[in-house]
Design a protein that fits this description.
61 residues, mainly alpha
Length: 61
């Protein structure tokens, strides 16, 4: 599932960059591609533990 999300994110950024360099820019395609990329980044980074997680647990004790 993680590999699928990364593949979709790479595809979305590729589409956004392609739209950026094309002569007839379609702003809606670029916005959708960026939203898909940001949503994918949010999903992937949600599983990354915080650096301060250990400190927070020690403060509770």
């Amino acid at each position: 599932m993680k590999a699928f999300k990364i593949l979709i994110m790479i595809l979305a950024i590729s589409v956004a960059l392609y739209e950026q360099v094309s002569e007839e820019k379609n702003i809606y395609i670029m916005v959708i591609a960026i939203v898909v990329f940001m949503y994918g980044m949010m999903q992937l980074s949600a599983k990354t533990p915080s650096k301060n997680q250990d400190k927070e647990e020690q403060d509770v004790d």
